[in-house]
Input
Amino acid sequence: MNRIAFSFLASLAVGFAASATADPLPSWNEGPAKQSIVSFVERTTTAASPEYVVPDERIATFDNDGCLWAEQPLYFQLIYMIDRIRALAPDHPEWKDEEPFASILKGDVEKSLAGGEKSLVEMAMATHAGITTEEFSQSVRDWLATARHPKTGRPHNEMVYQPMLEVLAYLRANGFKPFIVTGGGIDFVRVFAEETYGIPPEQVIGSSIRTGYEIRDGKPTLVKLPELNFINDKDGKPVGIHQHIGRRPIAAFGNSDGDFQMLEWTTMERTPSLGVYIHHDDTDREWAYDRDSHIGKLDRGLDEAPERGWVVVSMKDDWATIFPKQKAPAMSKLSLEDSAWRIEAIEGSAVIADSEATIRFDADGRVSGRSGCNAFSGSASIEAGGIVLGPLAATRMACPPPLMDQEQRLFQALDQVRAYSMDEDSRLDLKSAAGVTLIELKGVKRRI
Output
């Protein structure tokens, strides 16, 4: 791990090792959940304890989505795939008539997922396969650098849970070796795991597609192939742990029924051991979901946790803080505040001549404008190069078909906007999370 990443993680961990009496988990409220974790660490690392575990056997496993970082409103890797499909669409004109791609390009994500696992596999192969491992990793890095969470406007790798960062740091300081055991893609998570969590790529276990070895341009290359290799979910997690680690964990953290077998294998008929479920029950600061959720469903785990002795952590009651303090945005003399813009192009196509297509950003966090047909307005969350627009409301006047088509394309593009860039020549580009320019604008008034 480089020094910058280490310093960042150390600051997030709030320097718990500064003194022997410092609270190792300062973002946790006092209570049974926090005490269970602290007690387990003390019992397994104190040499005189009957439950002492030698350092080599102090293995702890963590799910990623919903356990270390957020997973709503969609899994972040799925958002990456959606953004990537939109970016690749110009090279695949056939996608306009093929599902699930057609629905994604029309902005109907729900319909694109109606095909279930088959649709997800098709989306994954279109965005993950046929490229080298280096090309894929760079694509993920580029996406993380520009993508913003659709609700908070924060970078996705800042949607991590501060209390869990503290647990990771606390365990490492006491001789534990933490592993990520995710149902998500192993190569996807490996890109950011070390900088975000302090977990190196060799300590990431996840789902994968096959990889092949080739010589390209005289150089040895690894290429991602369009075939499933391993699904690291549910009963696949203990298998993945065995294949990658070769040791049985003594602690496992998860948040859904997809983690049940990992917790079961870690704790059943084993002492000492620790099983922990993160329960999403905080509507105000995050999301509340469990038994009926299509993402991170927690049903069987809630029912059986008490009898199995697993700890159920309430985000609402047990966590004093959920997300790390947001980094202050860099100051810039260029600002969207109180500015007005003329739309010149939508997804590379010029707007209809003499149509009134405009956008205005007000100082109170509102956005308004005209599509060339109807007027629209709504909210705008803008910070540090990230932007989320909407929900937007519009008038319903009927216009000639070309203007109605332009309006539809504009509203679909606005829904996808997650980033922006400005220059000194009064140019503004509104971009997707993948960095693709969706709307090109020219300033008509701007405060500098």
